[in-house]
Each structure stands twice: as structure tokens, then as C-alpha cells.
Design brief:
Elements lengths: L16 E7 L3 H12 L7 E6 L4 H13 L4 E6 L7 H11 L4 E6 L2 E3 L3 H8 L4 E4 L3 E2 L2 H6 L2 H6 L5 H6 L15 H10 L10 E5 H6 L12 H11 L3 E4 L6 E3 L9 H16 L11
Parallel strand pairs: 1-2, 1-4, 2-3, 6-9, 7-10
Antiparallel strand pairs: 4-8, 5-10, 6-8
Helix pairs in contact: 1-2, 10-11
Length: 283
């Protein structure tokens, strides 16, 4: 599979950039996600995989990618499986990363070839970026091949429709026109919350907020982190139609209504008290 050569988007000293994402026992989806990062137009970034206790199949996929793409820098941060502890492993990955700029996504989201460069192009001091994902049905998630990812074809609207993507207004996220991307972004009413599947910020801002609240399980844990960033004066910028990812379908056995209620209470407290940092995150 032929992948495009990377190009730096700025001259002079190359800024250290880390891409951080979580995974848990989804080796097939992880492989496709890593292929997407192997084909980025910006090269030299590191990948930090925050592994919430996956089995040996995940380790084997990472070894395969390292063998295929030896220039791709990958850290695999793992802890023992003890239930849904995404925020805990994210904090470990955050501390292990070396980037002064951090891009967050998920191990079931295939990034378009310009995903990293787009986040870097829109970055601004005193701001964080928030994007979205185009959610695919399961059959199409399985159908995407390494060749489709390497060529970039699978990110285009025509390819997606031809291969079974049902019609939805959300499909405009696959638009290629720069003019339309800016127009849709300006017209969008989507809340500018931190979206853990497609977001970025400066390292110093993430550390200043003390990372992720480790009390939180699934349901609003990403948004709460973004609330603290905003409380600290870090303003959001939407890259919803600029930074493109394809979200691969899967089950969610970790969904827990009781945990969601607890999370909502924590987030409400963060908002009401205008908290800038958590006492339950990084030291």
C-alpha cells in the first residue's frame, strides 16, 4: 500500500506534536485508525495509545504497524483491565506524551490524511479546537480496506454513498470544498464542547486543568474537561467540518446509566463553581 509522503507545515524548529487516543479490545478498528495516521500529510508527530486494559490482540496490531511503518512513533500506555477507566489511562498517556501540542481522538476513528495538519493549521494560543466525526454503519465500517484508507478514497462523499452510506445531513462532514467547510462551520449550531474523538489543545492548558477527572466513567467525561478549559479562559474553536474522521461502528457494553447520573452531577458542579482544575486528576 502506497501512502503519501509527509510534509511539515511550518519552517524552522519543528514543534513536538502528540496524538493521544484510547482503545479497548478493538484490534481491527485500531489497525484501520493507525493506518490513517501512517498516511498523514504532516509527519514527525508521535502517537500515544491509551489502552484501557486490552488483551494481546491489541499489542499484536501495534507491533504489526510498527513493523510496516518504522518511522511512525508509537507509545503504548497500558494498564490492567479493571472496568471502564478511560479518564485514568488518558491521564497516564497525557503524562507520557512529549508534545507541546496535543491532539485527541479515539481508536475507532480513522483520520483523513490532513487531520493532523488541519489541527495544527487552526491552533491558536488561548484556545482549544473541537471537531466531530462522521459515524458509519457497521457494514461500511467493516468494508473499508487498507487500500481505501491509503488512497484517501473512503473520506469522499461519492465513495461513501457508493459503498452503502445512508443519506443524512451529517454527511456534509465529508464535503471537500473549502468554501463550504467555512460556510457550514459558520452556520453550525452545534455546541462547542470538548469532543474527545476530535479535539486538540496546548499541553500547558491540559496540565493546568489537571487533566481528566478520574472519578468519571462513560458519559460527559470529555465535556467536563472542556468545561474546565473554558472556565480557565481557554476558548473553543470549531473545526467540525475541517478536521475529518470516520467513526467505525461498535457496541457499547460499558454504557452505565448510574455512572452517567454521577457524571452529570460532577459536570454540573464544575460549571456552577466555575472550576478551572480538578482535584481528581493529575497531581
Amino acid at each position: 500500500m502506497r501512502l503519501p509522503r509527509g510534509k511539515n507545515i511550518r519552517s524552522g524548529r519543528k514543534m513536538k506534536v502528540s496524538v493521544i487516543f484510547t482503545t479497548y479490545n478493538q484490534p481491527a478498528w485500531l489497525y484501520k485508525t493507525l493506518l490513517g495516521f501512517a498516511g498523514q500529510s504532516y509527519e514527525g508527530f508521535e502517537i500515544v495509545i491509551a489502552d484501557d486494559g486490552s488483551g494481546p490482540e491489541t499489542k499484536a496490531v501495534i507491533a504489526q504497524i510498527r513493523s510496516q511503518f518504522p518511522r511512525l512513533s508509537i507509545q503504548h500506555i497500558w494498564h490492567k483491565d479493571d472496568g471502564f477507566r478511560k479518564t485514568v489511562i488518558l491521564n497516564k498517556a497525557l503524562l507520557a506524551s512529549c508534545g507541546e501540542y496535543l491532539i485527541f481522538t479515539d481508536g475507532d476513528c480513522i483520520p483523513s490524511p490532513d487531520f493532523v495538519s488541519t489541527h495544527l493549521r487552526f491552533r491558536q494560543k488561548g484556545h482549544f479546537l473541537t471537531g466531530g466525526a462522521l459515524r458509519l454503519p457497521l457494514a461500511l465500517s467493516k468494508k473499508i480496506s487498507p487500500e481505501d484508507i491509503g488512497s484517501g478514497d473512503c473520506f469522499g462523499y461519492g465513495w461513501l454513498r457508493k459503498n452503502g452510506m445512508p443519506w443524512s445531513l451529517h454527511n456534509i462532514k465529508s464535503v471537500d470544498s473549502s468554501v463550504l467547510k467555512y460556510l457550514f462551520t459558520a452556520l453550525s449550531r452545534a455546541a462547542k464542547t470538548w469532543n474527545g474523538g476530535n479535539a486538540s489543545c496546548w499541553r500547558k492548558d491540559a496540565l493546568g486543568a489537571k487533566g481528566f477527572d478520574e472519578r468519571m466513567q462513560h458519559g460527559g467525561e470529555d465535556c467536563e474537561f472542556g468545561d474546565r478549559l473554558k472556565n480557565g479562559g481557554i476558548k473553543p474553536i470549531s473545526v467540525r467540518y475541517h478536521a475529518k474522521t470516520l467513526h467505525l461502528d461498535h457496541g457499547r457494553p460499558y454504557v452505565n446509566e448510574e455512572a452517567k447520573i454521577t457524571n452529570d452531577k460532577i459536570r454540573a458542579s464544575t460549571q456552577a463553581q466555575r472550576l478551572k482544575k480538578t482535584s481528581y486528576g493529575l497531581p
